[in-house]
Amino acid sequence: MPRSRLLPDNFTLALLVTVALASLLPAHGDAARFFEQLTTLAIGLLFFLHGAKLSREAIVSGITHWRLHLLVFACTFVLFPVLGVALKPVLSSLVTPALYTGVLFLCVLPATVQSAIAFTALGGGNIAAAVCSASASTLLGVFVTPLLANLLVVHGQGGSSLESIGHILLQLMVPFVAGHLLRPWIGEFVGKHKTALTLVDRGSILLVVYTAFSAAVVEGLWSHIPLSALAGLLVVCAVLLALALATSRFAARRLGFSKPDEVTIVFCGSKKSLASGVPMAHVLFSASAAGAVVLPLMLFHQLQLMVCAVLAQRYSGRTAAPAAG
């Protein structure tokens, strides 16, 4: 019997196991330093693969549907940050300051690729536009997310903007560009070994999560986050997702987009990337702070999968009904 779409997927379960492992057996001393260095290498490899997988044709073809992409980018990089800042009086009262920092960081991240495309296909949306939009969002995120994070999050925490941007360029952008430039030579290999590379991709994220939570647990993460704050975080993530879904849908209809384009806009404009967010948090924040910062992203990741699975099924039914008639 296939697993219900409302249940956590295998990767989410692996994330939960990793958090539990870091909480019970956090890395200390030399082990912590080893994992820090290993994590840095893993992040470089992760973004190298992201660059190698990004098709140049997808970027070029995306230009032809520029109105749709502009709306998706506006939802991803404008709507979410505005919501995070504008709702601060309400949201910050539900969570701890550290978790609210994570919520702001969540708001400046790029859209996810795989699930946005999958839900667009399931809902009968414009798949070609989804591929272009989600891929371009990943590319823009390497530039835009660090700038927004320094403006709204890191700078407010006393970090150095130039130093943070320098770390991003060295650890994320250089491998990303290198992977993309080498795509003519390694693109075929990447395409043939998607399963193995997916394991590398997800293994890198799990390593970053373990390292971040280990450092946070050593600093007393769980003693600083009461159960009420975790419950409040669930409410915060639900509110942000609901507003993003409703606003993107309203904007798509108001601007006269077709139903398939509306589906694409809703699913690409409401997603946030765990694959990009976890390593970026490791670069932008101290080891002890990164654990609390990625916690909202992990919760939002699972929530968006559950809600969008139901929404995609409803869209699918609506688009299939006219065809049946």
Automatic annotation (TrEMBL):
This is Bile acid:sodium symporter. Keywords: Membrane, Transmembrane, Transmembrane helix. GO terms for cellular component: plasma membrane. The chain crosses the membrane at residues 39-56, 68-87, 99-122, 129-153, 165-182, 203-222, 228-246, 280-300. The lineage of its organism: Bacteria, Pseudomonadati, Pseudomonadota, Betaproteobacteria, Burkholderiales. Gene3D superfamilies: 1.20.1530.20. The keyword Transmembrane applies. PANTHER family: SODIUM_BILE ACID COTRANSPORTER 7, SOLUTE CARRIER FAMILY 10 MEMBER 7. The keyword Membrane applies. InterPro entries: Na+/solute_symporter_sf, Put_Na-Bile_cotransptr. Pfam families: SBF_like.
